[in-house]
Amino acid sequence: MLESPRPVLAILGGTGDLGLGLALRWAAAGYPVVIGSRAVERAEAAARDVAARVAHVAGARPPRGAGNHAAAQAGDVVVLSVPYAAMAETARAVADAVAGKVAVSVVVPLVSPRVAVVQLPAAGSAAAELQALWPDARVVAAFQNVAADLLADPDASIDCDVLVSGDDAAAKARVLALCAAIGLDALDAGPLANAGVVEGLTSLLIGLNRRHKARHAGLRITNLPRPAP
Ligand SMILES: NC(=O)c1ccc[n+]([C@@H]2O[C@H](COP(=O)([O-])OP(=O)(O)OC[C@H]3O[C@@H](n4cnc5c(N)ncnc54)[C@H](OP(=O)(O)O)[C@@H]3O)[C@@H](O)[C@H]2O)c1
């Protein structure tokens, strides 16, 4: 069920591949989206691009662009969508703006050049690191196993489960609803301590794609009761 009024969704690093795909899908679903960037003009250009792509969709809302800090201030839900190497710096720069909010980590702690090998940080996951950087936010981990180019193609149906972990039940429920609102099958994957498993699976998927010369390997959990399609 859609929330009313719909929460403002801020996507920090929303100019990148994954953030832009999420912005497109949520804007098309009628959510107010703020695309964040280190450079306001990049955010505004990305917002114009998404607005043009959703203009023909009934009920869509054009996003707006802002600097990452202003975006975090504006968001009810703050999605951090930057490379792992930039996570801590980006998170520290906006920490005062996220207290009490639902925060979504999509970050996968890949370590170049061996990105197909699981190499998790000492905290157990990027999401756990983010929770430590934003102690007053309610961090939820999601979207680590979804291919950005599928999200960015509004006609693509996305054949995978989104595994959602977090310690705050209400925050997790909100993110599960945000997945459902854009047609993604999402599952409650338990506490934030489980996020490392999900982040690690992305390296497995990268390796499977390479070995099978594929692009969109995805994960499905079997033998669960599912709502009828
Ligand atoms: N791509 C995928 O298929 C995919 C799938 C699942 C999860 N993820 C995860 O999602 C996150 C974003 O992935 P992505 O592919 O969208 O990444 P990306 O395109 O490489 O970067 C996203 C944005 O982060 C900002 N950024 C880049 N370097 C930065 C730095 N040094 N300091 C601060 N900001 C920086 C940039 O925004 P500005 O320059 O505008 O500030 C950039 O547009 C990553 O953690 C990735 O592991 C990606």
Given as residue ranges, the uncertain stretches (5+ residues, pLDDT < 50) are none
N-to-C span: 15 Å
Strand content: 15-25%
Bound molecules: NADP nicotinamide-adenine-dinucleotide phosphate
Q: Major sheet: size, sense and barrel closure? A: 8 strands, mixed
Which structural category fits the helices and strands? alpha/beta
Give the C-alpha Rg: 16 Å
**Arrangement of strands in the largest sheet:** 3-2-1-4-5-6-7-8
- Calculate the mean pLDDT score and round it: 96
Number of strands: 8
Order of helices and strands: EHEHEHEHEHEHEHEH
Report helical residue fraction: 25-40%
Count of alpha and pi helical runs: 8
Shape verdict: globular
Quick synopsis:
This protein has 229 residues and is an alpha/beta fold. The protein is 38% helix and 15% strand. It starts with 8 loop residues before the first strand and ends in an 18-residue tail after the last helix.
Task: Describe the structure in your own words.
- With 229 residues, the chain is an alpha/beta fold.
- It has eight helices and eight strands, in the order βαβαβαβαβαβαβαβα.
- The protein has helices at residues 17-28, 40-54, 68-74, 84-94, 126-133, 148-151, 169-181, 195-211; strands at 9-12, 33-37, 64-67, 77-80, 102-105, 138-141, 161-166, 185-188.
- It has an eight-stranded mixed β-sheet with strand order 3-2-1-4-5-6-7-8, sandwiched between helices.
- Strand 4 (77-80), helix 4 and strand 5 (102-105) form a beta-alpha-beta unit.
- Helix 1 (17-28) crosses helix 2 and helix 4 packs parallel to helix 5.
- The longest helix is centred in the C-terminal third of the chain and has 17 residues, at 195-211.
- The chain is globular.
- The model has no long low-confidence stretch (mean pLDDT 96).
- Bound molecules: NADP nicotinamide-adenine-dinucleotide phosphate.
